[in-house]
Every structure is written in structure tokens, then in C-alpha cells.
Amino acid sequence: MIDPLTARVERRGPIAPRSALAKLAAALLIAVPLIASIDVVSASVALILEIPLLLLAGLGAREFWTRTAVLWVAAPLSAVTIALYGAPSGAVHFEWMLIRVSDGSLSLAAATAVRVLAIGLPSVVLFVTVDPTDLADDLAQRVRLPARFVIGALAGMRMLGLLADDWRALALARRARGVADQGRIRRTLGMAFALFVLAIRRGSSLATAMEARGFGGSGERSWARESVWTRRDTGLVLVACVIPVVAIWAAVATGAWNFVLGG
């Protein structure tokens, strides 16, 4: 559901209204420890523990599968690549030229596939519910990042959505002039250059307008919306800390834990 006043997508999940900074911190806290481990146990336990977060994020079934479709394709593809070309160890089941499938490559492939899902799913789901303006407010007011950098990045992100419309308008304009019927590669390169020039012009105009409105000032600025941090935001961060700790503990307890830098 879209709010007609703010043009924001309203979601009913308990995690959806949480602070944007809390969601960013939760995604990082889950991802970083799992990146350092490369075993199937820790990734599997983390993925199971992440299920409540995914369900409480407020995404509908269709939106969830649409947003995470790339991960469901990338995970098995990465597993196949590791299984065929990973470092061999143990019994070799198949070998042909550069391809060598062994027990070690198969276990590493399974760990890689599960790890892609364990790291990617919470990151995608949590970031889908983050509004860029809320994130900019949190980064500037709580992390104390330079306001000029934060506002400039926010303005750039807002302009990204216009690129698709500009590309469509350029294609229709060229077709109306009769220059879009042949030479597909040449046409694409020409449109890409035109889009690049248009983006530079729009960025220059935006920068001038922002400077004229005092966004480049060195003094302390005010904010239209105050960044709010509640106990529930702290709870989300704590839950994100518990997930990798329990996952790595389970892997260590079963003797399956493998530090990625430790070979």
C-alpha cells in the first residue's frame, strides 16, 4: 500500500517501521561473520534463524520472490561452478580436462550455495523496506556523516529512477525521427552517450539548485525529521548479533567450522 501523502510503501511487518540505521546494522552484523566462514553448518543454522526476520519484514509473497529471484538463481550457479572447478580433496568422482568433481568440491559447493542465501536474503529483504530519506537522516544525525555528502548521495539516488524514463523517451524520440529501425548496436551506443550527457546536465542543474538553497553551507544545519531510535531498534540489532554467534557456535561444536582465511 502506498501512502498518497508521502508516496511511501506502507508495510505491516514489525520490522518494516524500524530505523533504517538499525536495518543496515542488522544486515552487516549478519553478513560479516558469515563471510568469514565457509562451512555448510554455520550457513544452514544462520539461514534457519533468519526465517523469522524474513517473515516479519512485511513483504508479500510475490514481492519477496521477485526481489530475491537473483539470489535463488545465483546460489545454484555458484554451487555448480565450485563443484566443477573448486579445489579437489578426498575421493574424485569425475574428472575431465579442467573439471574435477571431488568430495571436497561438493561440500564446498553446498556451503557456498547456502552461504549466498544466508547472506543475501536478509540483506535484500531488510534493504527493500528502507526508505533512502530515512537512511540519510539516520546517517547524518546519528553516525554524524557530513551532511553535504549524505544529501548529495540521497539526491543522486533519487535521480536514478529517472534513467529508465529517459532511456524510454530517447528511444521513442529516435523512432519518431526514423533513426531507430536498423543498426541496433550503433543505436544503443548512441543512446547510451546521449543518456550520459543528459545525466551530466541534470546533475549540474541539481548541484546548482542545491547550492543556491544553502545545502553546501559550512554551518550546522537543521533537519525536517528527527532521527528516532527505540528499544525495538536495539532489539533488532541484538537479534542480528545472536544469529551469527549461534551459527558459528553450532559449526564449532560439530567440528565443521572452517575459517575462510585459514584454508
Automatic annotation (TrEMBL):
Keywords: Cell membrane, Membrane, Transmembrane, Transmembrane helix. InterPro entries: ABC/ECF_trnsptr_transmembrane, ECF_transporter_component. The keyword Cell membrane applies. GO terms for cellular component: plasma membrane. Pfam families: CbiQ. It is a multi-pass membrane protein. The chain crosses the membrane at residues 21-49, 69-87, 108-130, 236-261. Coiled coil: none annotated. Its main location: membrane. It comes from the Bacteria. The keyword Lipid biosynthesis does not apply. It is found in: Membrane. PANTHER family: SLL0384 PROTEIN. This is Energy-coupling factor transporter transmembrane protein EcfT. It comes from Microbacterium hydrocarbonoxydans. The gene is ecfT.
